[in-house]
């Protein structure tokens, strides 16, 4: 939020919380319902969307239309709406719809505010557990029913002590999967299937690495802001910006990031 006065910063943070609150209220009535249905958005494979996804994004957009009508919006379900302020709200109403359909509490609501240089404010919200992870310049904290605290990423120096997460065991293409395995073979522990909750755990100092491929901008912009605010590093697999989507390497600190990046860079 560099270059913006404190009143604007506070307004953006308050609006982000209001957007997350609206998404929670829209989503929770649908979670673990036997009559929840899902349409498939993918031409191949399974990319589900539910009533909850659409209802949540509609609720989020309603809050933004009232509080920040000058800002642009990029949302997974309803695309892009133009704005005049130079700011864009990047929304994923349910990141991890497959987990949502399965009843696991590893999905989440992703909210980012981005300018021409990328995301600078992010929220990862888990409505069912009521945990919220918020990050921006000078702000890195989580809150929940069991308390809350400032967030600081881990200081793990090498891969041999690192904990690595990804969502899908295959990661992406066969070449991308092979690159992931090169890192996985060096770390202490590998876990799968956590969707955006893995990024929240990295920011909160619980794990060291998240490696994914095939992402969209709305999948990664909120995690970038949250993790960087907590002291972590997020890039693509070549060490460049990741906020456009594609391949992402999120790490707790520069040391473990560099070690993982060396093993990923050779991927075509």
How many alpha or pi helices? 7
In what range is the share of β-strand residues? Answer: 25-35%
- Integer average pLDDT: 94
Helix and strand pattern: HEEHEEEHEEEEEEHEHEHEEH
By CATH, the superfamily of the largest domain comes out as Fructose-1,6-Bisphosphatase, subunit A, domain 1
Query: What is the name of the CATH architecture of the largest domain?
Result: 2-Layer Sandwich
Which blocks of ≥5 consecutive residues have pLDDT under 50? none
Cofactor: Mg(2+)
Catalytic activity: L-histidinol phosphate + H2O = L-histidinol + phosphate
Pathway: Amino-acid biosynthesis; L-histidine biosynthesis; L-histidine from 5-phospho-alpha-D-ribose 1-diphosphate: step 8/9
EC number: 3.1.3.15
Describe the protein's architecture and organization.
The protein has helices spanning 6-27, 51-67, 97-102, 174-184, 197-203, 217-229, 254-264, and strands at 38-40, 48-50, 72-75, 79-81, 88-95, 108-115, 118-126, 131-136, 139-144, 147-150, 163-166, 189-192, 209-215, 233-235, 246-251. The longest helix has 22 residues, at 6-27. It has 268 residues and is of the alpha+beta class. The strands form 3 sheets. An 8-stranded mixed β-sheet has the order 4-3-5-6-7-8-9-10, with helices on both faces. It has 2 domains: 6-144, Fructose-1,6-Bisphosphatase, subunit A, domain 1 (Fructose-1,6-Bisphosphatase, Chain A, domain 1, 2-Layer Sandwich), CATH 3.30.540.10; 159-264, D-Maltodextrin-Binding Protein, domain 2 (3-Layer(aba) Sandwich), CATH 3.40.190.80.
